[in-house]
Amino acid sequence: MSSVPPSVHPGDLDARLAQNAAAIEAVLEALLSDAPAVGEIARPPRLLAAMRHGVLGGGKRLRPFLTAETARFLGVPVEQARRAGAAVELLHCYSLVHDDLPAMDDDDLRRGRPTVHKAFDEATAILAGDALLTLAFEVLADEATHESGAVRAALVTSLARASGCGGMVGGQMFDLAAEGRFEAVRGALPEAEIRRLQAMKTGALLAASVEIGARLGGADTAALVALGRYGRALGATFQIADDILDVESDAAQMGKATAKDADKGKGTLVGALGLTGAKRERDRLSAEAVEALAGFGPDAGVLRAAARFAAERKS
């Protein structure tokens, strides 16, 4: 695999990721404060504690990083970029809370800590996920995120399409079906269906993270097309890297259970292509993401480095 472009040293990217994670954490802390927001009646303490448990204190914050960095090189004020990134992260965290439930992936560990339904209870976890989901759209629809109602509507539409029936939620449904939840599965899942499932369940929200930053920055049609190509290739890179890590890493390194895909008979590109073939495809997709940014010059150096990071990460 070729190295990170000279304009962004790997250590610089690590520092940028850490800086962004800290900044997003502060925004999320404020959004999940004890005090009711304007128009709210009260915030139930147990519900709020569960929401905070599911959101704060962990994770790479890659999705809000992509939103904030895309917006940054398009000239968006940092406060607006971080609010939009926080909205994406709220939605991502809702999906994790619900995915971990016994009825879904049935996980006990997330980011090295008990999952929300283990730390609290299933009913509270469901409600916490619901509240995080709706809060994400409230943040995007707020004038503090952008003064233009048309831009805010575009942001909401992007996130809704990526996370709903034709995106992340639909991908989760395909995933459950692939496990044989509803009828017997006959043979291995075809490669094309694995790619579709992964593009929806994981890739759609990663791509939307980039698109939301681009729309916040007023990107023109050509830029939106190029950044869309980047986001989709990055999302696919991230997922296949995750499949590889599920085989090669342990729970302590990942902060969650590993080898569960194989145990459940889930179709992955590691299963379809073999480990060596999956690594080759991961690197190809990472290079495709970098190539999509060819027209943006050095300002997009951090996004190029993020594509390498998605392929090279160890957790």
UniProtKB/TrEMBL annotation:
Name recorded for this polypeptide: Farnesyl diphosphate synthase
Cofactor: Mg(2+)
Family: Belongs to the FPP/GGPP synthase family.
InterPro entries: Isoprenoid_synthase_dom_sf, Polyprenyl_synt, Polyprenyl_synt_CS, Prenyl_diphosphate_synthase
SUPFAM superfamilies: Terpenoid synthases
Coiled coil spans: none
Record-linked Pfam families: polyprenyl_synt (PF00348)
Keyword annotations of the record: Isoprene biosynthesis, Magnesium, Metal-binding, Transferase
Keyword Magnesium: yes
Keyword set includes Transferase: yes
Organism: Bosea robiniae
